[in-house]
Amino acid sequence: MAVLSTPNKIILFTAVVLVLLTLGFYMRRDIFMTVPFPVLQKNLNATRILVCGGAGYIGSHLVRELSTQPDYEIIIVDNLSKGHKKSIPKGIKFEKADIRDKLALDRIFSKYKPDAVMHFCASISVGESVADPLGYYENNVAGTIYLLQTMKRHNVKYFIFSSSAAIFGNAKEVPIPDDAQPNPINPYGYTKFVVENILASSENAYGLKYICLRYFNACGAHESGDIGEDHHPETHLIPLVLQVALGQRDSISIFGDDYETKDGTCVRDYIHVTDLATAHIRALEYLVKENKSQSFNLGSGEGYSVKEVINAARNVTGHPIPDIVEARRIGDPAVLIAKSTRAEKILGWKRKYNTIESIVASAWKYHKTHINGYND
Ligand SMILES: NC(=O)c1ccc[n+]([C@@H]2O[C@H](COP(=O)([O-])OP(=O)(O)OC[C@H]3O[C@@H](n4cnc5c(N)ncnc54)[C@H](O)[C@@H]3O)[C@@H](O)[C@H]2O)c1
Ligand SMILES: *[C@@H]1O[C@H](CO)[C@@H](O)[C@H](O)[C@H]1NC(C)=O
Ligand SMILES: *[C@@H]1O[C@H](CO)[C@@H](O)[C@H](O)[C@H]1NC(C)=O
Ligand SMILES: *[C@@H]1O[C@H](CO)[C@@H](O)[C@H](O)[C@H]1NC(C)=O
Ligand SMILES: *[C@@H]1O[C@H](CO)[C@@H](O)[C@H](O)[C@H]1NC(C)=O
């Protein structure tokens, strides 16, 4: 073996020291990186979920359920046009931004590096969508496109979408099965249907993995009674009925009592928001595990008539709740009920709230302690 000359020994020694130093720095690079990567420090394993519209009614209940699970980190994006800052639990990250603001989305995605997006943002009133279709397509369709483009740029693959029973219009088969052909009858329903198609095309083209959850009538409130439904204007039956019980309106209107139903009033499928929230968590687990896009109806399979809902509220509140029968509204189908076979079979989804009384009781717990909603 050749003996090294002194200059060569120095070079070898320096090289070894440099290699060791580099290795040492590399192994303890966390010490030097606390400044550039603050977001990743907390829990390296947590799945980071961007919840768009997470300050709204259904989104806030999803946030509440998800925050009780150990392995998720939540970031809410909401422009607070309809959402409520007071619904956001302490310690949850919140960015006030509009999903139509591409620059803001880019900044938020760079900052938090989400693994998945749940998308609750939308303008949600059927009547308003008839009066202002362009506004509805802009927020619900263009807004979703901007969100998907940002996901694509940042290589985020998983998307859970708040779709709606409204995509089905006047369904031929009732209860409506998961694979019924969509046939919307108003601009709101069309915006949801268009987004479902955009998602299918984006899976083909870019490998996006998505789940569409078609909610029927979302209702009820978190069991704690500290978050619930606060829409302005309110158009949903249960909060309106409970406003009568609170003395905030004199009576509740029943639009038509001559439908071909058990008592002549319209029958709808009421599904509790906490049950919707757990469906989102099951859907996300499924998406990540199976890597497969899918659509699910989320309903109870049972229908309650308007009169039954009012009776349940009378039972729960002990208030007589006077009702007034008025003419039918245009476009109200007699019966709208879903079969949620797919969610039950594939996601193992089970509802916790199985009676209209338990649903109304949970809503009542919120409303009687929040007489003016969040008051913001
Ligand atoms: N409530 C129901 O019964 C029902 C039924 C079927 C489907 N849905 C769908 O579920 C989703 C949530 O409904 P909800 O009842 O919780 O409504 P919501 O109005 O309470 O919540 C929507 C949230 O999105 C936010 N938002 C809207 N546009 C935004 C924008 N451009 N940028 C940022 N934030 C924006 C609002 O501030 C609000 O907090 C919607 O997509 C709706 O279409 C609701
Ligand atoms: C991270 O995941 C690994 C392997 O799945 C697990 O052993 C470890 O406990 C997890 N750490 C945290 C902080 O959850
Ligand atoms: C938020 O989005 C809604 C829905 O389109 C829009 O009407 C409103 O102007 C926006 N508000 C803010 C504060 O950005
Ligand atoms: C998920 O499916 C896509 C094809 O649609 C594939 O490119 C990708 O590698 C799959 N990912 C995993 C984790 O299996
Ligand atoms: C209201 O209470 C009565 C008496 O307990 C019961 O028979 C009825 O089923 C209840 N109605 C609803 C809609 O829950």
From TrEMBL:
<feature type="domain" description="NAD-dependent epimerase/dehydratase">
    <location>
        <begin position="49"/>
        <end position="299"/>
    </location>
</feature>
<dbReference type="InterPro" id="IPR001509">
    <property type="entry name" value="Epimerase_deHydtase"/>
</dbReference>
<keyword id="KW-0812">Transmembrane</keyword>
<keyword id="KW-0472">Membrane</keyword>
<feature type="transmembrane region" description="Helical">
    <location>
        <begin position="6"/>
        <end position="26"/>
    </location>
</feature>
<keyword id="KW-0413">Isomerase</keyword>
<comment type="similarity">
    <text>Belongs to the NAD(P)-dependent epimerase/dehydratase family.</text>
</comment>
<dbReference type="InterPro" id="IPR005886">
    <property type="entry name" value="UDP_G4E"/>
</dbReference>
<dbReference type="Pfam" id="PF01370">
    <property type="entry name" value="Epimerase"/>
</dbReference>
<dbReference type="InterPro" id="IPR036291">
    <property type="entry name" value="NAD(P)-bd_dom_sf"/>
</dbReference>
<protein>
    <recommendedName>
        <fullName>UDP-glucose 4-epimerase</fullName>
        <ecNumber>5.1.3.2</ecNumber>
    </recommendedName>
</protein>
<keyword id="KW-1133">Transmembrane helix</keyword>
<keyword id="KW-0520">NAD</keyword>
<dbReference type="GO" id="GO:0003978">
    <property type="term" value="F:UDP-glucose 4-epimerase activity"/>
</dbReference>
<comment type="pathway">
    <text>Carbohydrate metabolism; galactose metabolism.</text>
</comment>
<keyword id="KW-0119">Carbohydrate metabolism</keyword>
<dbReference type="GO" id="GO:0006012">
    <property type="term" value="P:galactose metabolic process"/>
</dbReference>
<comment type="subunit">
    <text>Homodimer.</text>
</comment>
